[in-house]
């Protein structure tokens, strides 16, 4: 069976999004448990986005939104395909290799992300499992209604069953 073009594009979006999320999970395993993601949707709703930062740059009222968008933060968008963080040399990289490059290229972020945070890591493992099933996390978007503050929405809907991340 030949996969339709839209199915391939959706598959690539998911593969690349998972590579970014799995990279962060690997960095947690390497001792950077204060590393955080701030995922969302573009205003058009066509691109999934994921900012990577440290815990000190996460809003105290929301565990998946940044305080400063441009400082101590790097950004991925699914519109970039496999050009992770605008890197030209990572198109075929595994999540492990992406983690290696992240360590080399963003030591200032990781310096602030060093340390143990088992509560966040446990939440992250749960979120990652949902993402592997096709439900990417979404902390911001141009919603028509405010989502339920107990749950972090996903691409599967507002009531994902995924609790908000710990702060």
Radius of gyration: 15 Å
Counted beta strands: 3
Percent helix range: 25-40%
Looking across the biggest beta sheet, what order are the strands in?
1-2-3
Outline: globular
Q: Average the pLDDT over all residues and give the rounded result.
A: 92
| Content of β-strand | 5-15%
Task: Please give the oligomerization state of what you see.
Answer: single chain
Q: Report the total helices.
A: 4
Alpha-beta content class: alpha+beta
Q: Note the run of SSEs as H and E.
A: HEEEHHH
Please tell me the total number of domains.
1
Amino-to-carboxy terminus distance = 45 Å
Give start-end ranges of low-pLDDT stretches.
Answer: 1-6
Largest sheet: 3 strands, antiparallel
A few lines on this structure:
This protein is of the alpha+beta class and 167 residues long.
Could you characterize what this model shows?
The protein is an alpha+beta fold. Residues 1-6 have low confidence and may be disordered. The protein has four helices and three strands. The protein has one domain (5-132). A three-stranded antiparallel sheet has the order 1-2-3, covered by helices on one side.
